[in-house]
Design goal:
Helix content: 10-25%
Distance between the termini: 59 Å
Shape: globular
Strand content: 25-35%
Radius of gyration: 17 Å
Number of strands: 9
Largest sheet: 9 strands, antiparallel
């Protein structure tokens, strides 16, 4: 039997009321209001407002139940080796309890399919599939605003 991949974060997605993403230069912060998500902070001021709730829910669910492809090390002697000293991306989940979960994303693995990650408060180093984190990188460039409804054809 194949070993179960290690779980890095395991949260009820309903506990997540905010998501803060930063790469040091750019930031985006989303807040859940009832069932809907809203972009309340972004590097570009024109990216504020109602957010694409479906896309965000899917992405947040992925990180709320973050599974590693592999646990690489129990402890990271030199975070810089894995790009974690000045993390390329930091994702902070703000919880209804007032607590936070923070995931630091380092450089990609040599094969380019995964990223080194570390969870705040956990000394271990993990590898996570790249696609799980891709949306967070995209949000910094293109915050997930609600799609503008296209006018119905009047033909």
């Amino acid at each position: 039997a194949t070993p179960t991949p290690p779980t890095i974060v395991d949260l009820d997605v309903a506990q997540v009321e905010g998501v803060y993403v930063s790469d040091g230069d750019r930031t985006v912060r989303l807040v859940r209001r009832g069932e809907e998500w809203e972009i309340v902070e972004a590097t570009s001021a024109d990216a504020l407002g109602p957010a694409d709730t479906a896309a965000i829910t899917w992405t947040v669910d992925g990180i709320a139940h973050l599974q590693a492809r592999l646990k690489v090390l129990d402890e990271v002697p030199d975070p810089a080796t894995y790009g974690l000293d000045a993390a390329s991306l930091v994702v902070t989940l703000e919880l209804t309890s007032g607590a936070q979960e923070q995931i630091r994303v380092g450089r990609e693995t040599p094969d380019g399919t995964a990223l080194y990650v570390q969870r705040e408060g956990d000394p271990a180093l993990y590898i996570v599939s790249r696609y799980v984190m891709d949306s967070f990188f995209e949000w910094l460039t293109t915050p997930p605003l609600q799609p503008t409804p296209t006018p119905a054809d009047r033909s």
